[in-house]
Amino acid sequence: MPSPDRSVRAPLQGAAQLGLFDWADPPPTAAPRAVAPARPAAPPAPSGCAPFPTEHSPPPARVPAASPAQHYDDGIHCFDWTLRRAARRTLALRVDDRGVSLLAPRLASAASISQFLQQHAAWVVRKLRQREQRLQALQAARIDWVDGGRIPYLGQHLTLRLRGATQLHWDERSAELHLPLPPDSDAQQVRDSVAAWLQRQALALFHARVAHFAAQLGVRVTAVKLSAATTRWGSAKSDGSIRLHWRLLHFSPQLVDYVVAHEVAHLREMNHSPRFWAHVGQLYPDYRQARLHLKQSTLPPWT
Prior knowledge:
This protein has helices at residues 110-119, 121-141, 187-217, 253-266, 274-283, 287-296, and strands at 17-19, 29-30, 70-73, 78-86, 91-96, 99-105, 150-153, 156-162, 169-171, 176-179, 223-227, 234-237, 241-245.
């Protein structure tokens, strides 16, 4: 919801703004014997909810140059990996668009690296399998921006019609979206037209659902705005404003309601404490299942 598996990075958020996040399975790290003792641990990162499942990877982090690719095979687990040495204190594994990288201190021994890789080979294979499944799901969800193409909309599908309509028209009965474009329009024109329509629909729906949940919780909402963030579905500020990602409309009304309820609850508790989740449960009792479903959902590539 997601971006490729890479070492976990904490989202920047403070008491003034909270968003909907959920931590991924963190990559293994370990301190090798050959380096000095680590300094005292830093304060824990803020809690949060699920990474936005975008088809685009975030900009790659700067990493040390890699050694030539090596092959790991213990008879059960098999994959290619590269070693990257740097001025660091721990061994760590990363699975991302570059493949499998093992980050190591400059003085880490070959034996400690080999042992670490063996201990976490199952984790690497699991992450590689998850990435492959994710890529297959994204490919299956890809939208054809032509006449007859289909887009997911509130748990259903709309069929795009490019037949020279004089104005944009949504035929709810036939589940067709008639665009005022000729049949030979290029994909960018079609995408832009659909995006503009979806954003209008999203803003109207979000206003209605935010008002519904805010009335139940007795909180004041100062503004409801659309978001196109690449890392979160929604956010709430202590000034009473809420932002919600317009592409939530690709999902079912139930998932939209969960995200809206989550952000409205933040206007009562600007944290992820038990009291916050009690408010979410008051607004949306089945929030645990919805949270899991959202995390597992695939957002269609917008290309």
